[in-house]
Amino acid sequence: MQLKKRLDRTFVQIIGLLQKNARLSNKELAAEVGLAPSSCLERVRSLQKEKVFRGFHADVDPAVLGIGLQAMIAIRLNRHSRDSLEDFKAYVKALPEVHAVYHMAGVNDFFLHVAVRDSNHLLELNLNHFSTRPEVAHVETSLIFEYHRNPVLPSFLDRQ
User: What structural domains and CATH numbers belong to the chain?
Assistant: First the structure.
């Protein structure tokens, strides 16, 4: 992406502000970064065109959706061929309970952040969708009591 190579301080400010609050109006955003609204809108559109933003979302309380339990599931595969990795990744990404998929280096090949109703749902998910897969050698589940996700990624770009 060409834009990433030429992100100036204002672009970085816009990205940071929208990560914190994607609902900022263009007028509010422009005031925060010291631009005219039309210039600010042009910059936001260029960031969108260059796919700097993967999307905008609402942070929802899991309990409202009936999610009573979350867990991290470590998966170790039997084989590490490209096909088996890609097949497994596609399979787990399609499961509604899988919130995030992390392809890892180290002992385990994947960490899956899952969201389920309760412990019985978690057991069934493990037994029916992970343990039975022929490419899976090992499954280890850790319950999540609490987590915090920082909505803002740090910027390590040299600022001009």
Answer: 7-49 (1.10.10.10), 62-144 (3.30.70.920)
